Amino acid sequence: xxxxxxxxxxxxxxxxxxxxxxxxxxxxxxxxxxxxxxxxxxxxxxxxxxxxxxxxxxxxxxxxxxxxxxxxxxxxxxxxxxxxxxxxxxxxxxxxxxxxxxxxxxxxxxxxxxxxxxx
Length: 119
What we know:
With 119 residues, the chain is of the alpha+beta class. It has a single domain (2-115), classed as TolA/TonB C-terminal domain (2-Layer Sandwich), CATH 3.30.2420.10. The protein contains three helices and six strands. The protein has helices at 2-21, 52-56, 85-95, and strands at residues 30-34, 42-44, 61-69, 75-82, 99-100, 107-115. A hairpin with a 5-residue loop joins strand 3 (61-69) and strand 4.
């Protein structure tokens, strides 16, 4: 009986933290904001894995990432700037595999990766 209380408290605690850090948004997709007028074209995308435990507990939200893209189009660095830590790790792992069209110089992009437990 004690283990059920501990489990329930842990789930409630995680849910409270997730809700406060990452409000629910619709879709599990990435939106980008670039300082350039012509943002880099994404040519290969890996979808983030949504942890089943979080999805079952209806924990979702938006993860904010700052991404540096090399001139060759590979992702050089990913910095988490907001969101649920577990979802942020999943989003960063996926974004590190993305490929963009080549350009003359490095590009900095801010991404919002949304996780929706209803999908």
